[in-house]
């Protein structure tokens, strides 16, 4: 493990390689035999499960229910909403046949040319089309509304350049799809769900985010408005961490989903969709971790406390483990996950390095002196500090410490994020900040896609969002000099 850590590229040397090394060495995920797809390993999946469980509860607390819709979507469905198909056409995986057969020349198996599908099926890149085709059968009257469905699923978007968790051909996510009787209800739903994502990011991932609207060219294909939460990684690049879309009546019209309203008139249904994915794993890693490995917020750590006995001989080990088991029972009673690592085939120093790499928030060590003195060595991962504390009352101390660590990780990320927001008034200043500092840039923009495209082509920076709390402020666009009424948020991004 010491060698593993030694081989971990530093953030300063190569941030991208540091990230990839960390994902693999900490046992989160690895590349699979299928190009662009990943294997999420048990430790990584345990973190995702914690995210899943927390979000699932938040969805159900806001009145949503889970359902499941097919993986395969008829190609014709994508033709019904022009903007939607345009947005996803280049990323679609297409199923054309339904059978294999043995190669007559004895070279394994081949696709049976006689088994071509009458209509090709798309492996879902997102589910709006299949869900709205289904909702048509569920909705006749205003009494059938609202429908507040979510599904946990996998999706496929055929990416050419992939990176574990951040961009893979197949990934896991949840997608909410709701149907409403009025525009006001649907707009409120989209706002409510971006609020849920913000709360989850800040309270669970310890990740400060900026909420805002996407520009017209950056919004979801087929949406009238897209709300986003944008987070800043330690290399100064932005990561879109969740989106919520007001879809208007676009999909209802495409799939002819009408209902009889309270006035007895036919109207088209109003819609939203919203989702977060395993990309949040990438955000968690890049926002908090360091050159020693992962730094996990306690709320998402699969192991919150690890205990390592330091001993010579079986008798000493039994005595120390007996004390540890008593502490573990107290911690478990408080809902704290704990592991006693009494492996005898590796040294304690190896174990310390391993759990540091894996980001376990709190480590306890007990040796013969601790046993005699009624003390415990307590180390916290976020600050890499350790101290000797009384074993008496240790469970209460750790319960408070975990809350402190969660808060400290958030505060550190917030302080960094705020230090990386720069206001600029000229294009030269904009380019200089991107080159020398990076981070978020608040600048005036004239609102035209032409200016947005020019900035993107020349600097690789995009409009991350128009912040919902951006104050009205008269100014002039940094490129065109045309009037602007508020600043928007730019950054380079993943």
Helix-strand layout with pairing:
Blueprint: H1 2-6, H2 15-25, E1 29-31, E2 38-40, H3 42-61, E3 65-66, E4 72-74, H4 75-78, H5 82-88, E5 93-97, E6 100-102, E7 109-111, E8 116-123, H6 128-138, E9 147-156, E10 170-180, H7 183-203, E11 210-213, E12 225-232, E13 238-248, H8 250-254, E14 258-260, E15 266-268, E16 270-277, H9 279-288, E17 305-309, H10 314-333, E18 338-340, H11 348-357, E19 362-366, H12 368-373, E20 375-380, E21 385-390, H13 394-419, E22 421-423, H14 427-436, E23 440-444, H15 449-459, E24 462-467, E25 475-476, E26 483-484, E27 487-491
Parallel strand pairs: 3-9, 17-18, 17-19, 22-23
Antiparallel strand pairs: 1-2, 4-8, 5-8, 6-7, 9-10, 10-16, 11-12, 11-24, 12-13, 13-16, 14-15, 19-20, 20-21, 23-27, 24-27, 25-26
Give your account of this protein's structure.
The chain is globular. Helix 3 (42-61) crosses helix 7 (183-203) and helix 10 (314-333) crosses helix 13. It has 15 helices and 27 strands. A hairpin with a 6-residue loop joins strand 25 (475-476) and strand 26. It is α+β, with helices and mostly antiparallel strands. Helix content is 36%, strand content 28%. The strands form 7 sheets. It has an 11-stranded mixed β-sheet with strand order 3-9-10-16-13-12-11-24-27-23-22, with helices on both faces.
Structure summarized in a few sentences:
The protein has 494 residues and is an alpha+beta fold.
